[in-house]
Design a protein that fits this description.
The chain is mainly α and about 450 residues long. The chain has one domain: Up-down Bundle (Growth Hormone, Chain: A). Helices cover about 80% and strands about 0% of the residues. Helix 15 crosses helix 21. The C terminus is likely disordered.
């Protein structure tokens, strides 16, 4: 098979598998806002039950760095493919188990305990998934198109979001008693079908050539995590801030926005779910243009323009939600999503260029998963508390704007420090040894 054909197959495998993983991860967030509080935490008042459901939602993010470390180690030591198959299978089994889990009314306190454990396992799976999916796509591509190729995996997030929104949009039309008794389970159980398809696709991909070369030449690192912390701690620390605004965008609107719109504003539940579905559809269709732009221009220029554009547009989305109109809410979320989804589309490939082959899986997984732990996991609780304390949506707007500024400054630093996102072919990977980029070889962390 030609390299181009293998690159395309790897891209599709990264896209579909990641879409399934994110579908599984995001349906939990939607269920948390709509039903899990009442079913698994019924002994507290409804508001507290929703907060506890959000806390369970956040538990998945607590486990994601562990997943990045465990599967990053496996991926850097023996290859990307095995990690990706294990994470996909793990996520599917757990998601189906959540769909079949008895509620508090049936088994008492064991129900929320098991729910939290299953959510933690979900977090481990998705924590190991992301880095491998990005790399299986980008490492099969040529050096000049790596940032753009990483967008294959990033397309999985809006696709998974779209599937999750559609799944709950379909079942939310059921009468309330049917929705709370069995309807909410259907999106979780449907994951079994998607997992089988994903496993078939991923079983047919090959390891990227440079990964095989590094393993055969004994360039793989014995303890990738130790090597990352020894050679590039500052780069990882700043890299985890690059995706602050893009990683949190879905949680801002699919969890906080859904709760705010259907609660305080009074928008119909099904109407706002439709708005979220259209938002995910827009991201799925518009995000690929980021890859085209990154091929036409330097990726770093595309990233900076997108981040600068997002700052004045973020307030627009929340103010339009506050009008109570589903149409205006949809327009507002799409407007602010437009530049941010370009950052998300290029994020994986951009971070991959900042690290060498031998530790790349572990490094980008650690950076991205700690990002979600810091900027996403506490967001439902922090954002909900801000809204309650201030009584104004501007508290949430200010928080999201702060995330955008953090992303912009971090992106500029990583590009300057490592050469990631620049067109020159040898700025991020040393020509003499493809496993040793200038970013690590010449950096003060060395």
């Amino acid at each position: 098979m030609s390299r181009q054909s293998q690159a395309q197959r790897a891209g599709w495998a990264a896209f579909f598998g990641t879409a399934v993983e994110w579908y599984d991860f995001f349906i939990f967030g939607t269920a948390s806002a709509l039903v899990l509080g009442d079913l698994f935490f019924p002994t507290v008042d409804p508001a507290a039950g929703t907060l506890l459901a959000f806390a369970t939602f956040g538990a998945g993010y607590l486990a994601r760095p562990l997943g990045g470390i465990v599967f990053g180690h496996l991926g850097d030591r023996v290859g990307r493919k095995k990690s990706l198959i294990i994470t996909l299978l793990m996520m599917g089994v757990v998601t189906v188990a959540i769909g079949a889990l008895p509620t508090y009314a049936t088994i008492g306190i064991a129900a929320p305990v098991i729910l939290v454990v299953l959510r933690l396992i979900q977090g481990i799976a998705v924590g190991g998934e992301w880095g491998g999916a990005v790399l299986i796509a980008s490492e099969h591509a040529g050096k000049r198109s790596r940032v753009a190729a990483g967008a294959w995996a990033q397309q999985g997030a809006p696709a998974g979001n779209l599937l999750a929104s559609l799944a709950f949009l379909l079942v939310s039309g059921l009468p309330d008693d049917q929705f709370t008794s069995w309807g909410w389970r259907l999106p979780f159980l449907f994951s079994a079908v998607l997992i089988v398809i994903g496993l078939v696709i991923r079983s047919r991909i090959e390891e990227p050539p440079e990964v095989l070369a590094a393993i055969r030449a004994n360039h793989s690192t014995r303890l990738p995590l130790v090597e990352v912390l020894r050679t590039a701690p500052t780069i990882v620390l700043v890299a985890l801030c690059v995706g602050a605004v893009s990683a949190s965008f879905g949680t801002f609107f699919k969890v906080l926005g859904l709760d705010f719109a259907t609660g305080e504003v009074g928008i119909d539940r099904q109407g706002f779910l439709l708005a979220l579905t259209l938002m995910s559809l827009f991201q799925l269709l518009f995000q690929p243009f980021a890859a085209l732009a990154a091929v036409r221009f330097e990726p770093i220029r595309v990233l900076v323009v997108a981040l600068v554009a997002s700052i004045p547009l973020i307030p627009v989305s929340w103010l339009l939600i506050q009008t109570g109109s589903v149409t205006l809410s949809t327009i507002g979320m799409i407007v602010s999503l437009a530049p941010i989804c370009w950052l998300f589309g290029l994020l994986g490939g951009f971070l991959a260029e900042a690290f060498p082959t031998r530790i790349r899986y572990t490094a980008i997984s650690l950076a991205y998963q700690i990002n979600t732990l810091v900027f996403v996991a506490p967001l439902p609780l922090v954002g909900g508390a801000l809204l309650d304390a201030s009584g104004s949506v501007w508290s949430v707007i200010g928080l999201q704007l702060a995330f955008a500024v953090v992303s912009l400054l971090s992106t500029l630093w990583i590009a300057r420090r490592t050469g990631a996102g620049h067109r020159a072919p040898d700025t991020s990977v040393d020509a003499a040894d493809p496993t040793t980029p200038a970013a690590v070889a010449d950096g003060p962390e060395r």
